[in-house]
């Protein structure tokens, strides 16, 4: 009893390939094996599921990275290591496909600040290999990277860093379908839609993005043929378990686990300036609208941004599926807005922010138009800089007339605008979460993970056995 427990952090990333497998599913299996094989192992917090920079071109589906911490006796550390590696290797062998560069990291002791900074960078910027190698160098002696330096290692380390660095959190209960990770899963999930609506009506204030009433689509089930059965997102782990038990699931599943996440809190919205926003960075910029918004074929809207003190320009695009295009289309020169999203490079335009948030701070209320011809009433044309005006109709010239001030009728409110639920990506805060508490310190509940010992279709979810794992 007096023996000191060792704290081991494990980070995982980039296990899934194309449509097969999922790093969160592997994490579930690793946790299950640890709990079964080292029953004395102590878990004192939720495993962490983070979403990283969505603008990075080489990323996994969903761009998730995972980590968790476990306390155990020093002599158990070796079996822990073996369990992790065995699960990882057999999972990779099962889903074997091109593209994955699995990252596995084990850290002994406390999570250093350097990993917290790596997390923020991996969330909002491009992480160069040299940067990661530099961080790894500082961790010599306490870090182990059994699969070597792969692309996935960045996420694995960032997820560890996040475990100490998260300021705002939500929680997600992820449930996994029975069968081989690399097996053929159908695209359809057998989850009764009516039960999702009933759950949503009763637990809407503790959960979010369950059901899209506009399109009638379930938002809890993913769309690809991967092992994830469903994901329930919310602020309260207890409520997620209640929510899951209200669903009628008619296909067999392996179990579920609750993660602490950086989802739905706009964690990627770091402050940036107009001239420093680079491709592959995420963030927010405050700027003036320059010129009339451009409506692209298909309905997406491009807005040019600038400020009064510099010549710098930046573009922002508002995609049709987000619904933000309608707001953006009503912007006018001089409006002051905040735009958030991820920067991408567009041929011929430069950096374009793919927007997931728009706040209208100031609306231009006046504009200047050319004077009217005092002779015929036609709008006059400028004869050139400080050369006065000429009427294109009657030829009248004047150097004394000046531009007229016109009050603008604005069909736009000064407020924040967010994407429609159906278009909300992992990191983005949906409208329904605005004003909610994003508490990262919710205590670990006893039923934070559940393994289905006989994964048969559950017809009576309310009679389901309690979870097998009770953490101390
Ligand atoms: Zn005239």
Mean pLDDT: 91
What structural class is derived from the secondary structure elements? alpha+beta
Give the tally of β-strands: 24
Q: What is the count of helical runs?
A: 8
CATH topology of the domain at 5-165: Alpha-Beta Plaits
Radius of gyration: 27 Å
**Major β-sheet profile:** 10 strands, mixed
Which spans have pLDDT < 50 for at least 5 consecutive residues?
457-472
The small molecules bound here are: zinc ion
- The first-to-last residue Cα distance is 14 Å
CATH class of the domain at 5-165: Alpha Beta
Gross CATH architecture of the domain at 5-165: 2-Layer Sandwich
The dominant shape is: elongated
Strand content: 25-35%
Q: Helical proportion? A: 10-25%
Account of the protein in words:
This protein is an alpha+beta fold and 472 residues long. The strands form 5 sheets. Strands 1, 2, 3, 4, 5, 6, 7, 10, 11 and 24 form a 10-stranded mixed sheet that branches. It has a 5-stranded mixed beta barrel with strand order 12-14-15-17-16. The chain contains 8 helices and 24 strands. Among the domains are: 5-165, 2-Layer Sandwich (Alpha-Beta Plaits); 282-364 and 409-426, OB fold (Dihydrolipoamide Acetyltransferase, E2P), CATH 2.40.50; 366-407, no CATH class. A hairpin with a 6-residue loop joins strand 19 and strand 20 (389-390). The chain has helices spanning 23-37, 77-95, 113-124, 129-138, 152-165, 193-203, 237-246, 324-328, and strands spanning 5-13, 48-51, 64-73, 103-108, 143-144, 170-177, 207-208, 211-212, 217-218, 228-234, 253-261, 282-289, 294-295, 301-306, 313-318, 336-346, 350-362, 366-369, 381-382, 389-390, 397-398, 404-407, 416-417, 449-451. The structure holds zinc ion. Zinc ion binds at residues 373, 375-376, 378, 391, 393-394, 396.
